[in-house]
Design goal:
Blueprint lengths: L21 H12 L14 E4 L9 E7 L5 E7 L1 H4 L4 H20 L8 H13 L20 E5 L5 E4 L9 H8 L9 E5 L3
Parallel strand pairs: 1-3
Antiparallel strand pairs: 2-3, 4-5, 4-6
Helix pairs in contact: 1-3, 3-4
Length: about 200
């Protein structure tokens, strides 16, 4: 039963939807679009699945494979908690399916390609077979802007630019082009200072 708010007062809405567990979504998409090929004989996914810990903020998801530092096999799909949490479930499904295509191309087909012909053919097949979400090469989700932690200042011209991380050995492009023919020069090094809060 819906409760009415007093006149002129907007009802309180939750800020974000709780994150959905990835494993049930993975198994559903695997059955629907990959003929069950992305699981091992015991039913475990070929790739580990997890939500990011909050540091994945520039892309909605990633698939990576290789070796861990201790030599164990690394094969995982990571979805961005900060980007996907405030969005509808279709964004999560689209991103998860995108990364599952990468896993399918890598683990099932044994091909090394980013968004090559195998990836694009699978993406087109999935998009034609359903209308719940659309898999795309690049997402267009809003990326939360993080405030700059550093201001870089050119000691020659005084030009200032914000940076999220402090970087060593950067020089002012304008001064390098103006005074040194476009080549890096130590006299144009940027000085990093903490950004004002």
């Amino acid at each position: 039963m819906m409760q009415r708010s007093p006149a002129g007062v907007a009802p309180e809405l939750p800020q974000t939807m709780p994150l959905e567990p990835l494993l049930p979504l993975f198994h559903r998409l695997n059955r629907q679009h990959f003929d069950g090929a992305l699981v091992q004989g015991d039913g475990r996914p070929l790739a580990e699945l997890r939500w990011s810990d909050g540091r994945l903020t520039r892309t909605a998801g990633l698939y990576r494979s290789g070796r861990r530092c201790d030599g164990r096999v690394l094969c995982e799909i990571v979805l961005s908690r900060p980007l996907l949490e405030p969005l509808p479930q279709q964004a999560t499904l689209s991103t998860l399916c995108h990364e599952m295509i990468h896993a399918w191309v890598d683990r099932v087909l044994g091909q090394r390609e980013a968004h090559g012909p195998h990836f694009r053919a699978c993406m087109a097949r999935i998009n034609l077979s359903q209308g719940e979400f659309e898999v795309s090469l690049r997402h267009r989700y809003p990326v939360p802007q993080q405030p700059a932690r550093w201001m870089a200042r050119c000691s020659c011209c005084g030009l200032r630019a914000p940076y999220r991380r402090r970087r060593e050995g950067l020089a002012c492009r304008v001064c390098c082009e103006r005074f040194h023919g476009g080549r890096w020069h130590a006299s144009c090094l940027l000085v990093f200072e903490p950004a004002a809060a």
